[in-house]
Amino acid sequence: MVSQTPRFDVAIAGAGMVGATLAVALGSAGLRVALVDRMTAAAMADQRFDGRTSAIAFGSQRAFDRLGVWSLVAENACPIETIRVSDGPSLLHLQFDPADLAPPDRPVPPFGHIVENRFLRTALHERLRGMENVERLMPDSIIDVAGDAGGVDLTLAGGGTLRAALLVVAEGRQSSLRERLGIGVRRWDYRQTAIVCSVQHEEPHRNRAQERFLPAGPFALLPMTDDEAGRHRSSIVWTETTALAPLMLALDDAAFAREISQRFGDHLGAVVPIGGRWSFPLSVQLAQRYTAPRAVLVGDAAHGIHPIAGQGLNLGLRDAAALAETLVDAARLGLDPGAADVLARYESWRRFDILTLAAVTDGLNRLFATDAAPVRLLRDLGLGLVNRATPLKRVFMRHAMGAMGDLPRLIRGEAL
Q: What's the maximum distance between 2 C-alpha atoms anywhere in the chain?
């Protein structure tokens, strides 16, 4: 018997949160999808692999709801109802409140939700298990790519091969496939490290996200759901200098808790670190282009930005939503989803959003890292002025919610 090479409309390399979201979107629209990752879904959902949380903006939540994913994660998602931004010890601050968006008698959705990554990964792969037209090849990886005018042939580390009209690279910042495709990156190192962990605290957080700018970088306290025993929890994203971060990570829990309190005060009572600690170097990284013949980049394979505004995953999810819409629209017209003109539409659609957010997060990080007194005075006055300018606050809030711009249908809460 002669074996037939499996054929797919789209092959996705990388089954993390962006790659899996794209697979759900394409699979729900009837496209045949291969999802390849070197890890199993169970390993990805293990807290020891990734104990971090993500801020899911309102627009991203609408996409997950439309895709049938949000109901699987909602009970583990903590709403963000207010956001407070401050500059070190300054009394001037900026607070975003639902009342700024609409009259008190009109309900306003949360700005977003904080979700542990393991719960989101579990929900996405649970949704994928019910899709017969999505084949999950996990654990496995793509080790060779050979494209022609009609498609791309992919060789797997496990010995198999498959053919697809389009290869989507969603492997993350260190993507080997991006390099194999000949796509370079521009990268700037911030000389900062993000320390990520969770803490328990005595007082409730009241669904408020807080970010305090310090000379070493922003320090964010993000509300999480209470644990099974009703203890209050928050996630911390602590930006520290690369030189000092290893010393902080090596502290015992008591000393680590004191460092947290020194940076953020004691308004939540005693703080106790729980679970593991994770760290990763911070930089901005932008692919020189997002497409190659029969291939396209999404998520961190295409861009990596500073976590100062918690928008990195949301940017990748907008990639997934835009690419899904582009490919599904092409398929409905009988067009080749891997054709150059189809991919060009995706690239031109996403470029402005990506470059704008990269520039904004880079600028904010550099502005607030400057500790010169005149600069500190000006930015504190700026925070105070914006806090009083409700129309301007509305613009910032709607951008943070993912509710402004040229949005894909899924991000608007509409069907593909």
A: 78
